[in-house]
Amino acid sequence: MRSLIRLDRDLRVDVVRGFALWAIFVNHTPGNVMGLLTPRNYTLSDATEAFVLLAGYAAGLSYGRVMDRQGWFFAASRVMGRVFTLYVAHIFLFVVFTAQVGLSAAGIDSAVYIDELHLDPFASDPYRALFEALLLRYQPSFLNILPLYIVVLAMFAAVMPLIRRPWLMLGLSTAVWLAARVFDITLPSWRGEDWFFNPLAWQLLFFIGCALGYSPPGGAPISVPWRPWAGALCVLLLIAGAAMTVLIFFKWDFAEARLPAFAPFLAAIDKASLHPLRLLTMLALTYLIAHGVRRDAGWLRRGPALVFALLGQQALPVFCAGIALSFLGRVALELAEGWWVQVAVNLLGAAALVGLAALTAWYGAEKRAPRQSGNKPLQAARAADNG
Question: In the record, which residues are listed under signal peptide (predicted)?
């Protein structure tokens, strides 16, 4: 396991991202009891926020370094190459997922699966549905994270020089986020529905990650020093968020009946345009983890942490496999009952993700081995492409 993991990186980032990828697999499997352990049940943010923030961190760290050494045009071309890779992965996943659902629906209950997962256009207008999917204007359920990532990464390629002036970049990013929320601005879609994740809002979290990851030549990345009062505020925010999460997902009838003035506020905490409380929750978690877990902590290099680090370092194939496997897990849980089905779905699913990550890491290591003494900026770009 250790030989497959790049230990020279900040493993805190890889461990958190690996945990987020596992949580995405679990959360996309309805009926999975392990979903009770994922952050969406006790915080206002979930694995998606962590995924986007850390994607921005990786982009700022790796591509920013390439830009400083070889210029904006070269770095932007590397970013757009990554965008193309993500696009191909999304289309491949789209085809696999649609085929999965179509075959399963034919044998079980087509109406439930096809309607719930928004695949009904394939029944009435399949060629148009495929064309719109290629344009990212049609996104069935579970297939909306990669389009978000594609768009924000392309935005990063265009404005990459601003990373050298992080506060200006964050100010402009915040203005776009506010405009998207206040004026309900989003990208066009096929059937008039908004994007499930509005890229014009979620780009703020991505660019915050970029600012945190970028290290200017001869300098240090942006840091937010530890302050006890700030840590206390973060803890209070998380406690309040946990209470609101329980009310929203588990005690909504109570909230409507006993808290009529507060219930509309809870209902307005949206995910599509990154509600301020979801954003603040993710930043509070980041602040506490960054200061509460040392970069050289020994447990990051042992046991389960290494497994999550391996998953986090092979994010794209693990994410795609997790989405595909989650639907298979759902079918298994609906066809049979009992604790043994839960165990089988979670163990086999996790084993498949870890096995894929190990295979991808091994192949990447073999591919990089003859070039270890090669061009360092190009190696940094390849590291970003892998991460």
Answer: none
